[in-house]
Write a structure and sequence with these properties.
Shape: elongated
Order of helices and strands: EHEHEHEHEHEHHEHHHE
Distance between the termini: 22 Å
Structural class: alpha/beta
Low-confidence stretches: none
Largest sheet: 8 strands, mixed
Length: 309
């Protein structure tokens, strides 16, 4: 007999969340009692160093709708999301963080919006309850990413949203070695809309993303989704070449008219250092892209599942 598939699958990556997992599951259950349809909750332990896995196993024992997955090591938030998506069976999939800043009660609003024919309903965080540094870094990333990819990236939208299973299947087909779920959602397209939701204070602890991790994520995402940095350096190089050519013509004119009295040692040294810096930077950017190509060709799995409860 074929197993009945749930209408909604919840996917949440877990890291340092042992004290809030029970409340997370409880809040999801409350929301689903309002919606009134079958569902499953998929919790993905990104090899958290605390006792999150023990709590997850107990939740799976107590509630049949809870599926707990443990990765073989810490792969990062977005690979953990992809691991959860690979196990989701629902017609609709809700992706949300485990820290309860994404409030499960808002899923009712998101699900009702899907009935208007949307394949993706994104949660737009109003009155975002994050630190100034996190909000500022998110804003800066959205502007830089938008510039390098010629797109409009809304920094008020993150992972939280509800997605039709055809959207999830399309996302899982993307073979990029660098994973960033919101950008994948933007890439695959489909009929989407964002609606405002309440954003809560973090229930416990602090974000595992340091400033340098955010910078690294932003840099890798831009490199993965855009080759504009290479194009900019080509344009910059051509501009410098054009200026140098004109400056050369000017110096020829000065030489022919006997206007050069003292050879400029300083200008020569400055020019050498300046042009050498451009060359080294250009080679470095090119090398980064070559390195990313190398990582992609290795085709290593972005996550490895250790256990499923």
């Amino acid at each position: 007999m074929e197993e009945l598939k749930p209408m909604i699958s919840f996917v949440s990556p877990v890291y340092k969340a042992e004290k809030i997992l029970e409340k997370l599951v409880s809040e999801i259950q409350k929301a689903m009692s309002i919606i009134g349809t079958d569902y499953e909750i998929i919790l993905v332990d990104d090899r958290s160093p605390d006792k999150s896995w023990n709590v997850m196993k107990k939740l799976s024992q107590d509630f049949s709708e809870v599926k707990s997955i443990r990765l073989s090591r810490n792969f990062g938030q977005h690979p953990a999301i992809m691991a959860g998506l690979s196990q989701a069976n629902g017609e609709w999939v809700v992706v949300m963080d485990c820290d309860l800043q994404d409030q499960p009660k808002e899923v009712v609003k998101l699900y009702n919006k899907t009935k208007e024919g949307f394949d993706i309903v994104l949660a737009k965080r109003k009155n975002r309850q994050d630190t100034f540094l996190k909000k500022m870094s998110s804003f800066v990333f959205s502007k830089i990413y938008g510039f390098f990819t010629d797109t409009n990236y809304d920094n008020q939208v993150a992972n939280f949203g509800i997605y039709h299973n055809k959207v999830i299947k399309s996302i899982l087909k993307i073979s990029d070695s660098i994973k960033f779920f919101p950008l994948f959602v933007s890439f695959v397209g489909y009929n989407s809309i964002s609606i405002p939701v309440e954003h809560a204070q973090r229930e416990e602890g602090s974000s595992s993303y340091s400033f340098f991790k955010l910078v690294s994520l932003a840099f890798n995402s831009i490199i993965s989704f855009s080759n504009k940095p290479l194009k900019l350096f080509v344009k910059f190089g051509l501009t410098i070449s054009g200026i140098s050519f004109l400056f050369g013509l000017y110096n020829i004119y000065l030489a022919l008219t006997n206007q050069i009295e003292v050879l400029g040692y300083s200008s020569i040294i400055v020019s050498i250092w300046f042009l050498s810096g451009i060359i080294i930077t250009t080679i470095g950017i090119t090398g980064i892209y070559v390195g990313k190509i190398f990582d992609q060709t290795k085709n290593r799995p972005i996550f490895i599942i250790d256990e499923i409860k």
